[in-house]
Design brief:
By secondary structure, the chain is an alpha/beta fold. It folds into 2 domains: about 180 residues, 3-Layer(aba) Sandwich (Rossmann fold), CATH 3.40.50; about 80 residues, N-(1-d-carboxylethyl)-l-norvaline Dehydrogenase, domain 2 (Orthogonal Bundle). It contains 11 helices and 8 strands. The chain has an 8-stranded mixed beta sheet, sandwiched between helices. Helix 1 links the parallel strand 1 and strand 2. It binds acetoacetyl-coenzyme A. Acetoacetyl-coenzyme A binds next to helix 2, helix 7 and helix 9.
């Protein structure tokens, strides 16, 4: 395993490309348009420059890491990689289309991983002729900081593929946790209902948004309150994951809060859109 392709140069994809390049892998960062990749590379450069400023990395090391990342706008570049980590939008149609194409393009030995936060790996794998080589690698945001990677076994994922991905996860300085393929896996099955409940608490007028966040920060030692965290993740992503849990389990305990739906309909998507539960300048 030497060459890794990351598909999607957004918040997650650029973070994944950064940690892989820092661990010494040759990385191809792919997105639909050159400007998306440029933006992702800009974020990586800014993160690494902060490390240099803090004396945690030399300027030479920064250049070396950046030199390991190649920009790409063509899925055909998957021809020369050993692992693909897909971090495109959370949409099953888009993901299955990408995986079907990758299956045609990538060499036989190439492992196809998805950074999906809640979609079934087994269904994504079924879009390919190599379901044994399809696996979930769920990173947490912000990727350069958070230690966890949930590794999700699809129904057909081969043991040696799991082992390879576990080894790579450790090599990039993360801690792997093995998870079976059920809606929301572990992280979002527990995190999202908590966030949804915080939104219900606001919706029902139990407390103000600031006070709800204070309770969880000061009372439970969470680094961010749940409403701030929801803004940070993206309210559209939170809603999408709640819908996936609701549909996947058929249990009303996962119904998304109407206030969450309303905010998403208004385009108040959190930090990325400038407004969610809070306003961002
Ligand atoms: N990218 C890269 N590095 C970042 C960063 C970012 N976006 N944000 C912060 N950092 C780095 C800082 O540079 C700093 O690094 P050093 O220790 O090397 O100096 C370090 O993180 C701490 O940052 P700060 O002191 O500025 O701020 P903080 O102490 O408040 O930490 C935080 C920021 C790490 C984001 C913290 O608030 C936190 O842990 N928040 C909760 C994050 C969380 O729950 N993530 C999971 C989201 S759910 C998910 O991702 C799964 C899903 O599918 C939805």
């Amino acid at each position: 395993m030497e060459r890794i392709m990351v598909i999607g140069a957004g918040q997650m994809g650029s973070g994944i490309a950064q940690v892989c390049a820092q661990a010494g892998y040759e990385v191809t960062l792919n997105d639909l348009k050159a400007e998306f990749v440029e933006r992702g590379l800009g974020v990586i450069k800014k993160n690494l420059s902060r490390q240099v400023d803090k004396g945690k990395m030399t300027a030479e090391e920064l250049d070396k890491v950046l030199g390991r990342i190649t920009a790409s706008n063509d899925l055909q570049d998957a021809k020369s990689v050993d692992l693909v980590i897909e971090a495109a939008v959370e949409n099953m149609d888009i993901k299955t289309k990408i995986f079907a194409q990758l299956d045609e393009i990538a060499p036989e030995h190439t492992i196809l991983a998805s950074n999906t936060s809640s979609l079934p790996i087994t269904e994504i794998a079924a879009a390919t002729n190599r379901p044994e080589k399809v696996i979930g690698m769920h990173f947490m945001n912000p990727v350069p900081v958070m230690k966890l990677v949930e590794i999700i076994r699809g129904l057909a994922t081969a043991d040696e593929v799991y082992q390879t991905i576990e080894d790579i996860t450790e090599k990039i300085g993360k801690v792997p946790v093995e998870v079976n393929d059920f809606p929301g896996f572990v992280a979002n099955r527990i995190l999202m209902p908590m966030i949804n409940e915080a939104i219900y608490t606001l919706y029902e007028g139990v407390a103000s948004k600031e006070d709800i966040d204070s309770v969880m920060k000061l009372g439970m030692n969470h680094p961010m309150g749940p409403l701030t965290l929801a803004d940070f993740i993206g309210l559209d992503t939170c809603l999408y994951i709640m819908e996936t849990l609701y549909e996947g389990f058929g249990d009303p305990k996962y119904r998304p809060c109407p206030l969450l739906r309303k905010y998403v309909k208004a385009g108040w998507l959190g930090k990325k859109s400038g407004r969610g539960f809070y306003v961002y300048e």
